[in-house]
Amino acid sequence: MLRSLLIPGLLATLTVRADVRLAPLFRDHVVLQRDQPLPVWGIAAAGERVRVTLGSDAVVTTAGTDGRWHVQLPARGANPTPQELVVEGTHRIVVQDVLVGDVWLCSGQSNLQMSVQHALHAAEETASAQHPLIREFKVANQFSVEPSDTVAGQWQVCSPATVGSQSATAYFFARDLHRHLGVPVGIINSSYGNSPISSWRDADALSNEPAVTQWWAHQRAAKTPPRPHRQPAVCFNGMIHPLVPFGLRGIVWYQGESDASEVPLLSSIYARQFQGLIGEWRRHFGRELPFFWVQLAGYGKAGERDWVGVREQQSTALALPRTGQAIAIDVGDATDIHPKNKQVVGHRLARLALRREYGVTIEDTGPELEGAQRLGDATVQLQFRHAEGLSSQGDLAAAFELAGADGRFHPATQATVSGRTVSLRSSALPHPTAVRYAWSPLPAGSLFNREGLPAAPFRAEIRAAP
């Protein structure tokens, strides 16, 4: 049913030829995933014998009746020394400058797509980007109504000549990983601006989401149908499916602005869609891959956009195993939906990966509310964990709101930081029963721990002191 709602004519086809071919990611300068069996696959003539060699390992297989072939090379450790991947059938393919390290799939919309040349301090960052062990594969834009097997793209070695066009968030993330781990890092950049989350989901799973199909049917009936990249499943089919089952270390996701703009339906079901996407991608790649994302950054022109609601729904995915959320509310821009400080975003994503997946002993989380209690009639005391060196920037009191029994929130008029606690008062509210923090598109103040990691927006009930 869902596919009948899609714009026709977008199918990317794969023409089967007799000569052996490799899947799209196996190109010169590729980074292969360490410490996992290495899947290698492609197309040949039906029944053709195919031999795949990497270093001293060689595997032989035969293409099936549909021409598809697939092998697994043995797992190997990280290796920064270039090798050749050789595939032999009726002819011979040599993939040169092959490294083994960690590969991260980075996906989402325009804030992930945004390149280094448009980021903060672009000239300085470009000039210093001599990192031959960091490589990016930019997946070409392709929107397909059916799952595609191939997509265009090439691996680029990071250098001052190439980094300008590479994803800023992905590059700064990879740079931090490489500096800490010393291994090659490959980034697969599969992103497209203005894409809603439903375009990145599996079509069969979306068929069980009546609200999504109902909304897209309404859009199809409109005078101006949605653009191709906003159709359900087309980004997944064209830009994720061709990558499966390439070996990955994990996934980075930076998206949500488009769904926050579609009020009320799409933003109200973002949590279900987001958790669905994480599960679907993990199933397709055959592993419970770590999945880290960027919560929506501050933005002063949200207007009708449900910035606050989508942020809260993004946080619900933390209930899934091997997930983490990088907070960017403090590095937003009042007038630009594409904040330029992608260095901080990449750094915070890298901290999540380093601690949760690589076991590095660092803090990766900003202050988190541990409890809220009322002291006397009007003072509220908040206790935080992950709060060594608790401090604030901007107008912290304005970032907090308190509500009474009627549920109406009023700005706090006083906020005092002491140790791991924040004490609040509101002159308009003598008996507060609830508190919320950063509950606006662009809060006036932010709370940080010693590592400079900000608190995420929250809301909570206030208990009376014993």
Number of helices: 12
Helical fraction equals 10-25%
Strands, total number: 25
Outline type: globular
Question: At the third CATH level, what is the topology name of the largest domain?
Answer: Rossmann fold
- Low-pLDDT ranges: 4-17
Tell me the count of domains.
3
Strand content: 25-35%
Mean pLDDT: 93
Structural class: alpha/beta
From the N-terminal CA to the C-terminal CA, the straight-line distance is: 57 Å
CATH class of the largest domain: Alpha Beta
CATH architecture of the largest domain: 3-Layer(aba) Sandwich
| Largest sheet composition | 11 strands, mixed
Instruction: Specify the CATH homologous superfamily of the largest domain.
Output: SGNH hydrolase
Per-chain topology:
Elements: E1 21-22, E2 31-33, E3 38-43, E4 49-54, E5 57-62, E6 68-73, E7 79-88, E8 92-108, H1 110-113, H2 122-127, E9 131-138, E10 155-158, H3 168-181, E11 185-191, H4 203-206, H5 210-221, H6 234-240, E12 250-254, H7 257-261, H8 265-268, H9 270-285, E13 291-294, H10 307-316, E14 323-326, H11 342-356, E15 368-375, E16 379-385, E17 391-394, H12 396-399, E18 400-403, E19 409-411, E20 414-418, E21 421-425, E22 434-437, E23 445-448, E24 458-461, E25 463-464
Parallel strand pairs: 2-8, 8-11, 8-12, 9-11, 12-13, 13-14, 15-25
Antiparallel strand pairs: 1-3, 3-6, 4-5, 4-7, 7-8, 9-10, 15-16, 16-21, 17-23, 18-19, 18-22, 20-21, 22-24
Helix pairs in contact: 3-11, 9-10
